[in-house]
Hints:
mainly beta
Amino acid sequence: xxxxxxxxxxxxxxxxxxxxxxxxxxxxxxxxxxxxxxxxxxxxxxxxxxxxxxxxxxxxxxxxxxxxxxxxxxxxxxxxxxxxxxxxxxxxxxxxxxxxxxxxxxxxxxxxxxxxxxxxxxxxxxxxxxxxxxxxxxxxxxxxxxxxxxxxxxxxxxxxxxxxxxxxxxxxxxxxxxxxxxxxxxxxxxxxxxxxxxxxxxxxxxxxxxxxxxxxxxxxxxxxxxxxxxxxxxxxxxxxxxxxxxxxxxxxxxxxxxxxxxxxxxxxxxxxxxxxxxxxxxxxxxxxxxxxxxxxxxxxxxxxxxxxxxxxxxxxxxxxxxxxxxxxxxxxxxxxxxxxxxxxxxxxxxxxxxxxxxxxxxxxxxxxxxxxxxxxxxxxxxxxxxxxxxxxxxxxxxxxxxxxxxxxxxxxxxxxxxxxxxxxxxxxxxxxxxxxxxxxxxxxxxxxxxxxxxxxxxx
Length: 459
């Protein structure tokens, strides 16, 4: 048994929010005759886009400007780095296009969802011209910034390195049949249009959060190995998890095992202790410590560095403090869930708790909990009011306050430092704290008004 996870209502935005606006503004007003969905705010809070349907045609509206109409639009619009231009897939004239701003790209039979570099300055997608199934050797390619790459039988989703200089994707290669041998297929990893040696299959690429390092899973003769920075680890496994990079992009860990069970954590190629079962590795912010769930016999426990912590009836995903010296995790005691955090006596009184979030200074934890079938946000041992649902708590930079979205009676509220703000029909972004902790900004919808809301924070 492990702790239940509430699907995150609002995911934390990626880096690059230092231009976020803390000026409140009505960004858009949806016309009464328009059916709308897929509302997206730009990272800086200065623009909003949504998908509008009127008179049987679809268009993306940015702020109050309606774009070109199409027969179909597949995606929630994504903003580029300038915070004004949106990218999405649209169908028109018998083909799919990737639309950038108001400019549709070439028509294709199939296009994948556009993927952006971390700073939103570049985008890439896989596209297919269609063909006769697996026998077609050149029906697909990856496009980067509007430029087509080499042709392949099929392509996986592309990914960018942290600095945006490297694009990688998997690709399928077709081996033509001969008089003595039937047609076959293999896979390669394509890095900046250069292919790796052919193997039975490969996973998607996984780039480090910083720099250019990349790892991926590689399979030959039904056995998997990990390739890190172009070098294949020697150990082979029948079961191999995806690589997990530390936040500094210098170390990688992954789970590995046999017979359908993940039994070890491998860190930088070094095998850890064998267990009956292990969970995903979790890194500290400085990359110096790793923690994970493990099971051996009846014991469910957390492994933290080279230490095995005391066991419980069940444990959930651990979290590490920013400096890697402390660990906190959900656990079950006497059929109730709670959080274990060092020597602190936190309550074991819940039907469910989520993975905790450390404050920036590493001294406190915040987490979601279910109590009497209502959701609470708890900071250390202090409970906030119950709601029908809550979003993930976000810490102020000063480690003294949290903000989160909450739902009650079909209305959404932003709760800031235990104060519930006014109700909205939707809250559409996570809360973003100003660096000095005096304001919180977020995007929301009230009826047909799309608002960038700013809350003054009081002690």
